[in-house]
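Cross-check.
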Amino acid sequence: MSTRVCAVGEFTSDLAAAYLKHVSGRDGDDSTDGSGGGGTNSGGEEGRLMAAFRELQLPLSANQVRHVLATARQQRCNPSPSGSDHPGTLSWGEFCVFAVEIAARQRQVAERSVTTGNRGGAHPVGGGAQGPTVATQKGKGGAHRTDHGCHCEVFLGGSCNPTTWRKDTAIPVLQSEGITYYNPQVEEWYPELMEIEEQAKQAASVLLFMVDDKTRAVASMVEVAHLAGLGRELVLVVEDIRGKNPQIAEDALSRREAEDLNRGRAFVRNLVEQENSVLTGSVTEAVGVATAMLHGAMDVAEYIARHRPHHVRHSHTLGEEMRLLRQVFVMYDTDRRGVLNMKEVHFFSCPLQHTSCSSDS
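Predicted model, tokenized:
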């Protein structure tokens, strides 16, 4: 089935150029078969769509692209019995609908970031729920804690034993900057620490979490997801488990377990990328971001604007426009031909524009 790629206006022309270059593989041609045939196949259809959206300054993660593709498949009115219409990719029309919706989301996010500032509200950077204090004392595990272990500026969460990222990297920097912190990693753990840790988490201005490759970190991933869902601002490092024969402590991991653990890490990355949280590449970078935030040199919104300027939140809701289009199309395609004539198109457009139509229009 052939579909003409018709471009009217600068934005549509940019869409057509990106679609023909990366998706249809017919750069320079004025038509495409909508199947995505031809062209390069680097990274598969997901990779090609990611490249197309990135060229339009609308970059999406791999998980977001998978969601877009799944939504498009679900909303097609007349899928081919052989599945050959648009296997694994978007038609020209679908591509346009999603691009317009993503661009609109970006404008909304930019407008909100200007008018609302810090989303956490109850935990402004530079002061926790009880206010920060620089005075510290030696804690049971040898780390510096604030009084009662709970009125701190940074909570150092995530992977614990046998990791040493806190004492080797994070704590020396925080101490040199005069920043108070809570370190939950102690030599001797006892149940009463659970309440102290929870208080520290609630009071901290910055939640810095490390999900490393030396532990399974399942509990840490659940905790990060919970805190992100609560709207807390996180500075996060997530490392995949690598190697042909990976080990956790002295336990050899099967290939399937390693894949499951990395799948969980991918989910966490995708989750925090959709929220107002900072995903960094190393502990050193994470501590640097936390320090800048606490010194007032940067906040989460500014970091996202600088490092993820085309950040799209809540991508799991992408496809609302596609779903509305399908509902209205089905309403007017009464004989189920899969096409509309010009009169039907006129009536079709009215609900989308929230206007009333008459037969005399």
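The radius of gyration is 25 Å. The chain is about 45% helix and 10% strand. Passed to J.P. for a second look.
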